[in-house]
Amino acid sequence: MTRIFKHDILPLIKERWSPRAYSEEKISKDDLYAILEAASYAPSCFNEQPWRFILADDEKTLTKMRSILYSGNLQWAQKAPVLLLIAAKKTFSLNNEENFWHMFDTGTAWGFLSLEAQKRGIITHAMGGFSMSKARKLFKISDDYEIVTVVAIGRYGDISQLSDDLKQREHPDTRKDISELLLNKGE
Ligand SMILES: Cc1cc2nc3c(=O)[nH]c(=O)nc-3n(C[C@H](O)[C@H](O)[C@H](O)COP(=O)(O)O)c2cc1C
């Protein structure tokens, strides 16, 4: 169950994982905007920067954001001081044509965000387990945007607050071997 690194890769990549034991400690605006800035420096097709954010870091918006989470996620993510909804603009601003790469580019932005957070001792955990239709209605998100994920952002708390089931899962996940990722192996 331990991660094994065969190569000398960026320490932040090695260290990042998706915990669930959040502390309720607030995150400073400076940290928050720094990680959003990191996200904004992701590369994107035609520099479209299709990523969009709905930031919940005040009690009113957090209550709204928590209400869209499925219960399995809510049980741990309700402690996170920040919940960030990430959406992706589907079309190019230049010509309103479909942007095939909107999700790809937005995924890169989330990756950058998570690494900048890691550098600052801030943990992140992306979630797909939430109601997209409820999110669209509550936050009035138009059909021009794909709703991608909600990310819990905060600092590491106390593992004893987690249910027994979640305690078992509270560790960095391992990865497939690179040989399993190469579709053209053996050619
Ligand atoms: C798009 C996306 C959706 C995810 N959805 C959930 C989720 O709903 N609930 C959850 O507990 N973890 C969720 N995860 C976390 C993954 O399970 C986790 O990233 C994966 O197991 C790899 O573990 P690591 O991030 O600790 O390396 C999601 C991750 C991503 C990127």
CATH class: Alpha Beta
**Ligands present:** flavin mononucleotide
Rg = 17 Å
Q: Which outline best applies? A: globular
* N-C termini distance: 32 Å
Element string (H = helix, E = strand): HHEHHEHEHEHH
Q: Roughly what fraction of the amino acids lie in strands? A: 15-25%
What is the CATH topology descriptor?
Answer: NADH Oxidase
The neighbouring-strand order within the major sheet is: 1-2-4-3
- Under the CATH scheme, the architecture is 3-Layer(aba) Sandwich
How many domains, as an integer?
1
Helix content: 25-40%
- Mean pLDDT equals 97
**Biggest sheet, open or closed, and with what strands and sense?**
4 strands, antiparallel
Structural description of this entry:
This protein is α+β, with helices and mostly antiparallel strands and 187 residues long. It has a single domain, classed as NADH Oxidase (3-Layer(aba) Sandwich). Helix content is 36%, strand content 16%. The chain contains eight helices and four strands; from the N terminus they run H-H-E-H-H-E-H-E-H-E-H-H. The chain has helices spanning 11-15, 29-40, 59-66, 71-77, 102-119, 132-138, 164-169, 178-181, and strands spanning 51-56, 82-89, 123-127, 145-154. It has a four-stranded antiparallel sheet with strand order 1-2-4-3, with helices on both faces. Helix 2 runs antiparallel to helix 5. The chain starts with 10 loop residues before the first helix and ends in a 6-residue tail after the last helix. The mean pLDDT is 97. The structure holds flavin mononucleotide (FMN). Flavin mononucleotide binds next to strand 3.
